[in-house]
Amino acid sequence: MDSANLVTEALTNGAFFLGRSWTRYLVVCGGAFVLFWVVFKERFAHRRIQRQNPERRTLLSEFRNSLLGIIFFLLPSVLSTPLYLSGHMKLITDPSATSPAMIALSFVLFVIGADTWFYWTHRGMHHSNVYRFTHELHHRSKQPSPLAGYAFSAIEGFVLGLYLPLVLLVFPVNRVMLWIFVFWFTFLEAYVHLGFEVLPRWIARNPVTKFLGTAVFHDMHHENGAYNFGVYFTWWDRMMGTIHPQYTERYEQVTEQRLLWRAPVDGVEDSV
């Protein structure tokens, strides 16, 4: 394929990826914002992680920066179009070519790898020599909302987006698994930036579920960037000593009341 056709193919793929990604962001992250920050903000006020509300201009900035951040995040995949067309990217396009069990296993391994990539690149971007150029933009959200899910600078978005093409250069991945991952990733970005904790109180101390990343876990990173560099899981922070020392206590404080708990009315408490 000549260079003109390669450029056309890359731009076509880029426009397709961007349209789908913006749509997912608007539906999932935008929907989570409307539900928790507008419609039911009083109903779930007891599960709010931080009491202070961000300014309206900060929310608008989160929205604008996320739309741009999605572009930067997709750029590595778009630029790798020639590698895909030349057969160097190990993407399996036939859904039936991979068993459901193998798709499930590859999803788990892909997520574990993504968490590792995120922890170390994220922690590296907090270094004082590069922070201002890479990650400072995301931390303008001190009280993050779901709109901040993709609020990446150009460098940060590009680095995070490199994970997918790098994996495809080495390991065969079925397209179905990638579809599952991108939807899961969008929901996760909305959840960890939700500003409210929706998971049960026992999560933080259970010997298995304590390794799951939570909205409280990531929200505390926005409060104090010296801790909680992971996002999907907490194990890298636990192993490397970068987990916030008050994380468990803070999580249990936020989740003291059940999610569907109602404030007492006339001395009568209603909880479901």
TrEMBL record:
<dbReference type="GO" id="GO:0008610">
    <property type="term" value="P:lipid biosynthetic process"/>
</dbReference>
<feature type="transmembrane region" description="Helical">
    <location>
        <begin position="66"/>
        <end position="85"/>
    </location>
</feature>
<keyword id="KW-0812">Transmembrane</keyword>
<dbReference type="GO" id="GO:0016491">
    <property type="term" value="F:oxidoreductase activity"/>
</dbReference>
<feature type="domain" description="Fatty acid hydroxylase">
    <location>
        <begin position="107"/>
        <end position="242"/>
    </location>
</feature>
<dbReference type="InterPro" id="IPR006694">
    <property type="entry name" value="Fatty_acid_hydroxylase"/>
</dbReference>
<dbReference type="GO" id="GO:0016020">
    <property type="term" value="C:membrane"/>
</dbReference>
<feature type="transmembrane region" description="Helical">
    <location>
        <begin position="97"/>
        <end position="120"/>
    </location>
</feature>
<protein>
    <submittedName>
        <fullName>Sterol desaturase family protein</fullName>
    </submittedName>
</protein>
<feature type="transmembrane region" description="Helical">
    <location>
        <begin position="147"/>
        <end position="171"/>
    </location>
</feature>
<keyword id="KW-1133">Transmembrane helix</keyword>
<feature type="transmembrane region" description="Helical">
    <location>
        <begin position="177"/>
        <end position="196"/>
    </location>
</feature>
<feature type="transmembrane region" description="Helical">
    <location>
        <begin position="22"/>
        <end position="40"/>
    </location>
</feature>
<dbReference type="GO" id="GO:0005506">
    <property type="term" value="F:iron ion binding"/>
</dbReference>
<dbReference type="InterPro" id="IPR050307">
    <property type="entry name" value="Sterol_Desaturase_Related"/>
</dbReference>
<dbReference type="Pfam" id="PF04116">
    <property type="entry name" value="FA_hydroxylase"/>
</dbReference>
<keyword id="KW-0472">Membrane</keyword>
